Amino acid sequence: MARVLVVDDDKSIRRTLEKLLQSDGHQVLTAADGREAIAALPGADLVLLDLGMPEVDGFDLISRIRASDDPRVRDVPAAALTAFARSEDRTKALRSGFEMHLAKPVDPGELVASVGTLVRRARARPV
User: So where are the chain's domains?
Assistant: First the structure.
């Protein structure tokens, strides 16, 4: 279906999301930090990004993504996947450049539905 980049510093979360998304037919790329994420982004149709990572957090990373000169990177649909679940956290994520805010622990059905929505947005992007 789509190439989904999962960015999270927690290896077990990356593995869990990878298995779930693969079972839904997606190809999954993973990254443990911002450096790996930036390198993998040109090959991704969408990104699920943890906000609470060390060194380069999700807010800094989405800022770098949205400022990229490469439209494959700059325009990639993105969802914040985070334990920061207050309404003000959601608002901050959406204002920062994310299309969605998903609170951990995320319901598997909600995640699959959200990825489907982002896939449709990715396919609607001009090439």
Answer: 3-124
